[in-house]
Amino acid sequence: MKKAFEITDKKIIDDILNEAQFGTLALCSNNKPYSLPINFVELNGEIFFHGSKKGKKISIIKENTNASFSVVEDCSLIPSYFSTDKGDACPATHFFKSIIIDGKIEFVENYNEKANALESLMQKLQKEGKYIPLNDETYKKAINATCLFKLIPNEIRAKFKLGQHLKKDRFERICEHLQERGTKKDLETLKLMKQFYK
């Protein structure tokens, strides 16, 4: 990873994890990769997932607890002509924010930990509330029937590609084009670019 793209600020990383609604969980069985998009919540430095107690992912996890989890936040597509008038295709790129978390998965059996993690997931995905909290007896059967597992990180890498490595003239040219194109995503990307440019 280019040093210019590396993000180590824990608050910035946590903010992305708290905003992202899903990521991709990558597992491996018999030297064959298997990945799936999955909802999650970060809680006390661990990543929690839920689902059925049976199925392919559960079988793989029981065989191999090593896992990698990635979250990507899409920023603006940068056409080649935003960077140059020469007609080259090579400067075309896509700006993004990404996090990759490697670690080991554990199944969560403790009822209170399960209820707390599922409540945190609800608070994340349904911020407006309007539901009975998951510590209510109503959910006891459902919580017991739900498989909850967590990824305990041993390495977290965050990468923001927002033009930080570019020379000033190319950086400013891209900024001008984003301002001119002016979509909501472009204006958000522009703000981020200026925030992280060194």
Helical content, roughly?
Answer: 25-40%
Please give the domain count: 1
| Radius of gyration, in angstroms, nearest whole number | 20 Å
Instruction: Tell me the CATH topology.
Output: Pnp Oxidase, Chain A
* Pattern of helices and strands: EHEEEEHEEHHEHH
Low-confidence stretches: none
Number of strands: 8
Span from first to last CA?
17 Å
Give the CA-based shape: elongated
CATH class: Mainly Beta
Name the CATH superfamily assignment: Electron Transport, Fmn-binding Protein, Chain A
Structural class: alpha+beta
CATH architecture: Roll
- Which percent band covers the strand fraction? 35-45%
Number of helices: 6
Largest sheet: 8 strands, antiparallel
Mean pLDDT: 95
Structure description:
The protein is α+β, with helices and mostly antiparallel strands and 198 residues long. The protein has one domain: Electron Transport, Fmn-binding Protein, Chain A (Pnp Oxidase, Chain A, Roll), CATH 2.30.110. The chain contains 6 helices and 8 strands. Helix 5 runs antiparallel to helix 6 (184-196). The longest helix has 15 residues, at 111-125. The two termini are 17 Å apart.
Can you give me a brief rundown of this structure?
The chain has helices spanning 10-19, 56-63, 111-125, 140-145, 168-181, 184-196; strands at residues 6-7, 22-29, 32-39, 41-43, 46-51, 66-78, 93-108, 147-161. The chain is an alpha+beta fold and 198 residues long.
